[in-house]
Specification:
This protein has 462 residues and is an alpha/beta fold. It has helices spanning 14-26, 37-46, 63-73, 88-97, 109-139, 150-163, 179-188, 207-215, 232-235, 251-263, 289-294, 300-306, 323-338, 347-354, 361-375, 388-394, 405-427, 432-439, 443-452, and strands at residues 6-10, 30-34, 51-55, 79-83, 101-104, 169-172, 197-201, 216-217, 229-230, 240-244, 265-266, 275-276, 280-285, 309-312, 344-345, 380-381. 30% of the residues are buried.
Length: 462
């Protein structure tokens, strides 16, 4: 120990107070001694107290009340109760009230030293847990689910409002839209954040294993069950159980799960006892719910139990204003992970991104950018670094809604010119002379078009 550690001692007996102070000083601590509980509370508020020793029985207020006051001010400071009239009942009452330990008078320095060391280990564990929870919230905070589109702003508002509730959530959206990230964020901001978040992919289990994996089993329940196993649902007790691709659950298991949700109890395979569970369910699917219900792939009664609140994640192609934000985020992330100095996208790459269909949504965008960062030899990502299907896909159909014929013609011409220039740039690695020869144009006109469409030949000179 060291003198920077402040230990508050409260006792109405002056002899005990001084004796305890001498022991603490001998152990290298800084004791603050008080016989008046109000003065002790005031010093606790003003000073950074590390540990409290408090007498159980005092004239004006008892130690149990003092524990309550200290915990309201700072729940991380351990409170140790001591008394000359120790009984089991009093010890139990003190521990229930929140005391870290209960010791009887008289005590010696060795006993005090052991209690202090245990108390500090206990406090450090709490502080470490609190720090990890803050990191968890930072990692999955809503601001990190990137998007400025109206659709995503509505998702953020809904996600934040439901996080503090215990309502079951049903998340819909195409594959790769970030359903599990939303589920983890809800858990990280909920009152259950200190408990387990247990994710399962319902399409990943063979049907024969579903029952035993989710509900667990008793020893001897079947061949090979040599000992009891806790199921994933029971492991999530007090926390959140996330079921991805919930429509893939076998119907027999859907029935059993429905009963567990309704009754908040489960029975292990091969067991007789009902086990209480307190679990919040978050489910997700990329299937059309109406089709799943009509085909009886998903039980209607289970769906209504799970779908108390619905959150729908739009596909990336419907939120084009988010694409640049996401791309810049993934570029920075990939550059750091791969230890490469890649800082930007060329304008034509962003144009390709914004016109891509993105069947794999955000997951596909992240993979494309990681691939591009891996193979590029420059500080910029160019179309040369993208998969070929992307440049072909982005040059697909044009929208002529609300356009006059002259505008539609101009739009088509610009699209063809950009596609043609991009083809030549990639074919000849940015060599303008060869491009002009194939195009049957002068170098001056090729340069004019390149400037018009923000193409930089140097970006293609690999």
């Amino acid at each position: 120990m060291n003198e920077n550690i402040k230990i508050l001692v409260i006792d109405d007996e002056e002899d005990v107070l001084r004796g305890c102070g001498r022991i603490l000083e001998a152990l290298g601590n800084n004791p603050l001694l008080f016989s008046d509980h109000n003065a002790a509370i005031n010093i606790f508020k003003d000073e950074n107290i590390d540990l409290v020793f408090c007498d159980l029985l005092m004239p004006d207020v008892d130690g149990l009340k003092m524990i309550e006051l200290f915990q309201k001010l700072n729940p991380y400071v351990p409170v140790i109760i001591f008394t000359a009239y120790g009984t089991i009942d009093r010890a139990v009452a003190a521990m229930k009230a929140g005391a870290f330990d209960f010791i009887e008078k008289p005590f010696d320095s060795a006993q005090i030293d052991i209690v202090i060391q245990k108390a500090f280990r206990h406090r450090n564990l709490y502080l470490e847990r609190d720090n990890l929870l803050k990191q968890l919230e930072e990692k999955f905070k809503f601001d990190n689910i990137i998007g400025k589109s109206i659709q995503m702003k509505k998702v953020f508002e809904m996600t934040e409002s439901v996080s503090k509730t215990n309502a079951n959530i049903f998340i819909t959206g195409e594959s790769g839209t970030g359903k599990e990230l939303i589920a983890r964020s809800i858990h990280a901001h909920s009152i259950r954040k200190t408990k387990a978040f247990v994710p399962i992919n319902c399409s990943a289990f063979p049907e024969s294993l579903f029952d035993s994996e989710i509900f667990g089993y008793e020893k001897g329940a079947f061949t090979g069950a040599e000992q009891r196993k806790i199921g994933l649902l029971e492991y999530a007790d007090g926390g959140t159980f996330f079921m991805d691709e919930v429509c893939e659950l076998p119907l027999t298991l859907q029935s059993k799960l429905l009963r567990a949700i309704q009754e908040k109890k489960l029975r292990r395979v091969g067991g007789n006892d009902l086990i209480d569970i307190d679990v919040r369910f978050i489910s997700a699917t990329n299937e059309n719910i109406e089709n799943a219900l009509q085909s009886q792939k998903l039980r209607e009664d289970l769906y209504y139990r799970l779908n108390v609140i619905n959150i729908h994640l739009p596909p990336l192609r419907e939120r084009k204003e988010d694409i640049r934000l996401l791309a810049e985020h993934f570029l920075q992330k990939a550059s750091q992970r791969l230890n490469k100095n890649v800082y930007r996208f060329t304008d034509d790459v962003i144009d390709i991104f914004e016109n891509c269909k993105w069947q794999g949504n955000i997951r596909e965008l992240e993979n494309v950018i990681e691939r591009a960062v891996t193979i590029t030899k420059s500080e910029s990502i160019t179309p040369y670094d993208l998969p070929q299907y992307m440049t072909q896909q982005s040059s697909g159909s044009l929208s002529f809604d609300n356009l006059k014929l002259a505008d539609a013609k101009q739009k088509t011409i610009e699209s063809v010119e950009k596609k043609y220039l991009l083809h030549l740039l990639k074919k000849y690695n940015g060599q303008v002379t060869k491009m002009s020869e194939e195009a049957g144009m002068t170098r001056r006109n090729i340069h004019r078009l390149l400037k018009q469409y923000n193409f930089n030949p140097a970006d293609y000179r690999k």
